[in-house]
UniProtKB/TrEMBL annotation:
This is Acetate--CoA ligase. Its EC number is 6.2.1.1. NCBIfam families: Ac_CoA_lig_AcsA, PRK00174.1. One of its GO terms (biological process) is acetyl-CoA biosynthetic process from acetate. The gene is acs. SUPFAM superfamilies: Acetyl-CoA synthetase-like (SSF56801).
Amino acid sequence: MAYPYQIKSIEEYQQNYQQSVIDPEGFWANVADHFYWRRKWDKVLEWNFKEPDIKWFVGGKLNITENCLDRHLGTLGNTPAIIWEPNDPEERHRVITYRDLYNKVCQFANVLKNNGVKKGDRICIYMGMIPELAIAVLACARIGAIHSVVFGGFSAQSIADRIQDAQCSLVITCDGAFRGNKDIPLKSVIDDALIGCPSVKKVIVCTRTRTPVSMIKGRDLWWEDEIKQVETMGNPPCPAEEMDAEDMLFILYTSGSTGKPKGVVHTCGGYMVYANYTFVNTFNYQPGEVYFCTADIGWITGHSYIIYGPLSAGATTLMFEGVPTYPDAGRLWSITDKFRVNILYTAPTAIRSLMGYGLGPVNHKELSSLKKLGSVGEPINEEAWHWFKDHIGKGRCPIVDTWWQTETGGIMITPIAGVTKEKPGYATLPLPGVQPILVDENGKEITGNGVNGNLCIKFPWPGMLRTTYGDHERCRTTYFATYENLYFTGDGCQRDEDGYYRITGRVDDVLNVSGHRIGTAEVENAINMHAGVVESAVVGYPHDIKGQGIYAYVITERQTHDPELTKKDILQTVSRIIGPIAKPDKIQFVSGLPKTRSGKIMRRILRKIAEGELDNLGDTTTLLDPVVVEEIKRGRL
Ligand code: 6R9
């Protein structure tokens, strides 16, 4: 496939960028022209950030799977679409060509139809990283069902919350998932989750681990049996459902600074164009290149850059079931060697954790196929950047430090591989179509270079979220009400003398732990569920590998006799309510929390203490009870 909109030089970037600002509609129409539409749009864009109301390619009709599959069959039918590497290196890998993938997606789409799934129905997908996960996602899109993928590390309670919020009618899962030396009992977690989810009528279970599971009559079906049924029907094709450009494609839950995670909604047309455009440009993807993104499909990176971006571009996308440290810390490099990977897209937390094992696992690995490297999910520290550059890229591969969010649908600020001059720690420049702006607390624009502020975006881009599922007002207040007429990212940002952007981290109460977004309020609520806990406050602190660690200050009803046991209980509670990823790294029992006279917890102070900046607590005179600060300082872990 050729990509006429692929940027090849910095001059071309400048030119495209200018054009995208002067005439955004013309710019995006030119890109969108290279996709397969059942019906062309009447109007490129209608928008306001007040309500907000954002529509791209108004009146356009399409199906994203026709762009990811059907249109490639003629030229790329025998080209690998997905290469799958299992958790256990001894097990055989799988190669799925575009034709295979097309057939499998149609087959499973027919399974969904046989089970009564219709356009607009919400389907929860809770699976490990096996090809059937990608097949399930695409099968939903094929028939216009809205997928809501839930990461395999979330607890039954978290799944139940998500299923209830979206009123899902069907769940697709596996008996279990292999991850490193663990075997996660997915179906049994689903069984627990479904106790409170009457909307779910059916569960389709794909075999992976052969862990014993209980199947409920009339509700639970085996994936393999259902496929056989379609085979006995003679494997009929599955025509793609015609979707409006603004019909929902998927919901993906993500954490914010308050309340429960919200369902970020992406729609068919704009998301497709944006995921493709950003994939092709950021990585400067060339036909035939093997591309490996180590993310899990349970996160937005997996949606946009394992499935939709690469497949819509006819790329070969490598999907890995396991973890970078299993069976040893050289696994990513072995995979790179085995499949001659050309592009590797991973997270700073993975790099930092692998750095800890030294160069042993890297030496003697053949990494000469690598041409481009990428980083995503959190700020990348310079040390990790250089290690990645020198020891993995051998000094010859550009690194793209890509900044973006679940809400943005695709990459926003990033170098373009081989085009943009990189700078460690900097996401550098906005892609064409992206108009960042820095503002102060009052929403006043901070102009010029060498400045710091809150990062906002002032003009719509096709991949942006349209709403939060079932609660549009929440979308407005979270993203569009802080600063008038701007989308607020929640991130702090520096623009240096060269006009390069560097993301400095969240300015709200959202933590980034190993690249996973976790709301402090969410963790506090989970801790508070534990009997005997009166109140808690959670903050982040710098963590060598995870980027941020979770520090919890907890008040218990009475002095605990066995603090270690209570800590263990609290960790278990958090695991049960949210999932293991949200477990605090440190729990400090305190007798009180620093509060203002109006009762607000002064997190700023707690953050400083957790960071170890004890002499630099700032103004504490507005505190209700300044003495408590001294006590907390003394008890710091
Ligand atoms: C894609 C993804 C979004 C938050 C975002 C920011 C942080 C992501 C980053 C980065 C610095 C980068 N973040 N990429 N910070 N440099 N290159 O990660 O989405 O899970 O929604 O997280 O992650 O704080 O606001 P999501």
